[in-house]
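Example record

The entry below shows one chain as it appears in the dataset: sequence first, then structure tokens.
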Amino acid sequence: MFKKICIIGIGLIGGSIARAAREQDLCSNIVAFGRKSGIKNLQTAKDLAVIDEFYTDIEAAVKDADCIVICTPVGVIENIFNQLKPFWNESALYTDAGSTKASVVTAAEKVFGKVPDNFIPAHPIAGAESSGVAASKADLFLAKRLILTPLESSSEVFVKKTTDLWQGIGSIVSVMEVGHHDAVLAATSHLPHILAFSLVDLLGQKDEKVEIFKYAAGGFKDFTRIASSDPTMWLDICMANKKEIIPLIQQLKTGLGEIEQMLANDDSQQLFETFTYAKQARQRFLNQFDNTMSQIINFNIQPGGSLRGDIRVPGDKSMSHRSIMLGSLAEGVTHVKGFLNAEDALATLAAFRAMGVEIEGPVNGEVTIHGVGKHGLKEPKDPLYLGNSGTSMRLLSGLLAGQKFNTVLTGDKSLSSRPMKRVTAPLATMGAKIETEADGTAPLRITGTDQLKSIDYVMPMASAQVKSCMLLAGMYAEGETTVVEPAPTRDHTERMLNGFGYPVQREGAKASITSEGKLTAADIDVPSDISSAAFFLVGASIAPDSDVTLNHVGINPTRTGIIDILRLMGANIDVMNKRSVGGEPVADLRVRSSQLKGIDIPEALVPLAIDEFPVLFVAAACAEGQTTLTGAKELRVKECDRIQVMADGLQTLGVDAQPTEDGMVIQGKTVDSIGGGEVDTHDDHRIAMSFSIAGLRATAAITVQDCENVNTSFPEFRDLATQLGLKLT
């Protein structure tokens, strides 16, 4: 790959890069540059055969090098750039391994006037408490994340070379914007190191320190392990990233103050809830990352097989969101069963806790909400972080538009790229004051007001989230707010509002609400989510000799498009034991394998199955003949562009799938319809699960990359899928 790699700073990281590059035959010559004062370390590196040669003269070190990797502390990178400047080679790749990126970019701009297009900032998320080249090892980066932070000016050629370098030594490469990288690492790495250093410093200065350290157990050792890290390196990191670290320290101080107050007040219940939530959050973290921060979760599916069994999928996500929202605004105590213990729903729960609502659980799907009433929410101390949940952000924007306090709604990279003008624009006509980014995306900065006015809003698109947003805002608006939808969408909001005693009038496509009402606590039994059931409805339909029963599934008529479409394609689905639970229709669904046929999907059914189309595309690939979808432009603004991403993935697997502006045309085959290969989820949970189901009809293994996102909606997917017979590891 390279003729000569020059490592500037041959310590743990630099030495490990050199060892891995040599082991993987990425270059024929590896050299190092260092200071004269570090000659002993340089000699050690040569004696250990980590490098071929070393230099204390930078011109000699970089001569003929086509890859230069800067592995010094971030505090000295500006000096390194100054030394490199006279000998900069426009045809060579330059990268670094610094733990902060804004400071590195600033240093480059200061020295060169702009960041050279062949310098690609990078940060390997790997390390050890031991330092020095003697501690280096060839597998340090194996299966560990590496974050690239290229700039708009960065050369695509050199971004590709940098990616190839880090992948070549075993890293899993991700790309982030510079500022986002520093914010994320401040929370996940820099602050924990500060806490460890601070705690050990505190205890080390106590008179009884001998006893403290003598009797410290494993928990103390685990928590303080990183306090053994190199102080010089961490001084540089913390000073370079103090802009991101200081606000986190302030938030932590607030949190510790709240715990201090709980202890002082003997508030054991609140303290227990705090500990319980933290425990559950950590477990979700461990589940997501497979017990390591650096591990990416890929699904590997062996071809073929069938699905057989009797299961219950987790609770409906839409209803879980709404139960928290309306239960919090109700008067009295609301009990929820079947709550979806997944990232998106938990983001809503955390938001209402931050606004002063006491919420117990979830424990085994049960949540108890001590409602504060329609006007009882309190201003949160910090922005409300909603992760990847578009439902949370869009519904909360309406609900919070009529509060008297200010709020900021934020989310992850995916959520922050999704369009929000579809809710902020109509809210503005009601008098709401909401600022977005220039392109209409989050964060949403909401200025409190009690002057909302009702409107008659004809929705330009069929969206349950937009409809719900407007109805929730209408609870705080003067007069009657009316929403007219162009096609039926899920009506959980209207049903649940009525269930809490808040009147919503329905007349055909029109829903109306006023501010003259109140919410009264209720008991909610959340049915199983038909969107989660959809993967097994399709899987059992396409896999030979399959027979699956899905229990207690919500069959709200605004959600059953998946059943209607599959039946039109020839699926064998029985709807059994119909009943009503809390005003929502529920049934058990039995599905058996059948030969599907291609159809033109009726546009009237599209809004009723909008979330299920990724897996329906898989069904279409296994159907006889052509399947055509139109009228589904909404799919392009979900967690990803689901039309394009599914088309790309299906084509990778050998399926003739042609995307259109508002849908897709798929040529299905009854035999050898799906091949093997690697597909990317684009950080979309439904993409991940859909391509997993595709393995049932694949002719070779399928690898679905980056599947930790499944935890946002269906953490139990892997376990339930393998229980039924999917060959997923």
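Notes for this example: Residues 287-294 have pLDDT under 50 and may be disordered. The first helix runs from residue 12 to 23.
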